[in-house]
Amino acid sequence: MIHWLETCDSTHQHLIDGLKNGTFIPPIALGCHEQTHGIGSRGNMWLGGIGNLFFSFCVEEKQLPHDLPLASISIYFSALVHAILKEQSSKVWLKWPNDFYVKEKKIGGMITTKQGSFIIGSIGLNLASSPEEFGVLDICVSSHFVAEALMREIEKKKEWKDVFSKYKLEFYKNRNATFHLGEKVVSLRDAVLCDDGSIELENKKVYSLR
Fold first, then answer.
1. Per the domain annotation, does 208 fall within a domain?
2. Is the distance from CB of 54 to CB of 35 less than 8 angstroms?
3. How many CB atoms lie within 10 A of CB 114?
4. Which label site among 42, 50, 134, 190 has the fewest CB atoms less than 10 Å from its CB?
5. Does residue 195 form part of some domain?
6. From first to last of its 210 residues, what are the pLDDT tens digits of the chain?
7. CATH number for the domain that contains residue 88
8. Are 55 and 122 contacting, i.e. CB atoms less than 8 angstroms apart?
9. Interacting residues of 197 by C-beta distance below 8 A, sequence separation 6+
10. Pair 36, 47: CB distance under 8 Å
């Protein structure tokens, strides 16, 4: 069952705090209709208004596929959401490792945190509105629909190789994209995607670790 709040600072932090103080017992999923201080990548905030998706969940490692590389868990969860949206006729694509884009604008992202034997995953997705520099999903779906569909997909324990094979098919869309490697902005034009979800770039292997 998914617990829905009207408003929350950060579903990701709220879930982590609840696990630490014993308020929440895994497996658990938590969403809110308005988020005021969401956590984005590299310490940034992910904000958004009512109608967008703000959703976090916690599962044990043993509930995930045996062949799933721990460093690529965010890719796995993102690919599941991507497949859900594609089935609804969206043209959304994934920028490595775990950002959702429509055309050239970011519409959301996924982050994960490991705490003991538990994995906390969180997604923010602009379904209804966005700041000017970001975009909005190109189809009409509700936050409840996406969250519930994602939890059903996670329960199926689809193997990494099957989920990742579909992710690889659209990796070419990253050719004009960049990502942050530490403080450095790096082009993905010459990146080679490896079977464990990492990329080879400038003779180095880089993992998502988000």
1. no
2. yes
3. 11
4. 42
5. no
6. 899 999 998 999 999 999 999 999 999 999 999 888 766 554 555 666 789 999 999 999 999 999 999 999 999 999 999 999 999 999 999 999 999 999 999 999 999 999 999 999 999 999 999 888 899 999 999 999 999 999 999 999 999 999 999 999 999 999 999 988 777 888 999 999 999 999 998 888 998 755
7. 3.30.930.10
8. yes
9. 69, 71, 72, 75, 76, 97, 164, 207, 208
10. yes
In total, how many domains does the chain have? 1
Instruction: Give the pair of three-digit tokens for residue 148.
Output: 């519930």
Strand, coil or helix: what is 15?
helix
Residue with tokens 């209709």, as numbered in its chain? 33
Closest Cα partner for 125 from 92, 155, 172?
Answer: 92
Domain housing 121: 2-171
User: What are the structure tokens assigned to 119, written together?
Assistant: 């994995």
